[in-house]
Amino acid sequence: MVQSLARGIEILSIIQERGSATIVEVASVLGVDKSTVSRLMATLMHYDMVSIDPVSKKYRLGFRNLYLSEGVKKNFNVAIVARPYLYKICDDTKESVHLAAMGNRKMYIVDQVRSQREYNLSAQIGMIEAWHCSAVGKCVLAYKPPSFIEDIFRDYDFEHYTSNTITTYQNLEKELKKIREQGYALDDEERTLGVRCLAVPVFNYSGNVSCCIGISAPKEQITEATIKKYTLCMKKYGSQISKELGYGLYRS
Fold first, then answer.
1. What superfamily would CATH give domain 76-244?
2. Which of 37, 126, 142, 188 could form a disulfide with 27 if both were Cys (CB 3.0 to 4.6 A apart)?
């Protein structure tokens, strides 16, 4: 490990955590001489990694960090990260698994792995899922702020598909509360009779949920016993996807 590079990264982390810091403060945290920190700061300033407040003389993160972070986000594809875990869920449950993500205020199926079961109820990539009666739609909604939910349903048509379809905003609110409490969503024949679906959330680096993992199967296959088994598996790998997306990395 290159010591000077490691210390430079540590300096950036210290400044990020504190918002700003003086050379004396950084030296104290690192346990090194002020002259060492001063030299490292000069290099970081040269590359716009830090800047100095002319009044307080404290160092803060420079704009180069913003530029680099945008590059990370632009090149980060959640489907690429999630795909190996979709296969693991499929292997463990023997069910078809799909990944759904929000785009333009709608829920889309963006990836799927098909099981070898005879019925093979797999979702189609590109399919739009309804907010009120799909496991993936309800799952994402459950973790959105009230203002977002109210905006979505201001002029929303609660289309009636089966006798189990949620058709009022009040009942949907109760359902979303239940989803947050149990950590997964269930579509109990709400869109198609004879079919049940499960979904668990995937969190991104900022703690937001804009995508989730789903499973679809005949109602005889998704019973109380298998719901527990499947959701444990889905939560396990959903948590690993979230971790790879940066969730929890800098959260206390």
1. GAF domain (3.30.450.40)
2. 37
